[in-house]
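Q: Protein A?
A:
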Amino acid sequence: MTIPIANPRPDTEIERVLAIVAHPDDLDFGGAGTVATWTRAGIEVTYCIVTDGQAGGFEPDRDRAEMPAVRRAEQTTAAAHVGVRDLRFLGYVDGRLEPSYELVRDIVQVIRQVRPHRLLGQSPERNWSRLATSHPDHLATAEATARAFFPAAGNPFAFPELAEEAWTVDELWMMEHPEKNHYVDITETFDAKLAALLSHESQHADPAQIETMIREWLTTNAQAAALPTGRLAEPFTIIRL
């Protein structure tokens, strides 16, 4: 399947964005620099984190019962670095996600509550060249998000048990998709992205290498986007209804 040419609405037409991901830190790796450009432009951004990341971390002796609270706190700190203060945690278990009726319903409910003009999420397509981005929880969350995006959130007859009114979002931005069709220059917000990433202290056994790794990746993206030397970019795949 060929991905259509990106045709995003101008940011000046966007008032609210809802970002939906599987784990704490997914957004900070994939899109925090772009989120920071949006919040600095006055756009309200809400995070919806599906699991509490219980299976993450690198310390074998750590009490795993502590991880949900730790990771929620880290994500809250990270979000503040890029101007996000509205976070919704759905509390699903890390490693057990499926694109179930219940998960689609819960995402639809958040969409109808936030009433965003743009969704930011993950890709339901497995990327065999960068398999780490295709964690099964990412794929499940992305599939549920795609189902919520169309047709469920905007269908008043879907999930009649929900009290919230139907809301149609006409724009979905996906991170991690194998076929990219849009890049955002985040050179000016890179420091905020890095600060957000480093807030996830429980996940980084060697935090000193994070900046080098991320800079290299963002530089490669900027080159693919034909941006001037020295610029940094995050890639996306944009779908419009």
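Q: Protein B?
A:
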Amino acid sequence: MKGYFASHFFNDAVFRWTEEVASYIEDETGIAMYVPQRNAEINDKRENDNIITDIKIAQADTLELKKANILFACLDGLTIDDGVAGEVMGFGLIKEMEEEYSIVTKKPRLIIGIITDMRWQGTGDNHLYRNLMILGKVREHGYIVEGYPGEDDYKKEIVKIVKKFKEQNNL
């Protein structure tokens, strides 16, 4: 079974968080995870900036989305990251096209959106807005898992969902 971890990993804090959470999921579930920040060929801006192109990034990441059973999508940030939003929509559409056109595949698919911003749990002026189309696509094909800064319960919830998905699909 394969996973794809989408996040806005371009700064130190989210880079480290992405690696921590992706590694935790791998260790607890045995899932083979594609984490774009690990792909230096398209994301090492220091060493490979002169050969990285938009087409190479799109091709490499799309190939891995097609291979994945589960998309883990970090929905944190000032807004949902553009790349993450694209990955959510792309993955959801892959699943829908397979179903709509009866494309035979042995790839059951699931999206797990992750929100750890404390403002998400606020109300009124304290509530964090998220793009409803992206949230809808996540919920249509999976779950939104909520966390709170400094707490790890959300990671355990993600592992529980993955294990249930594996069991239901004999993976």
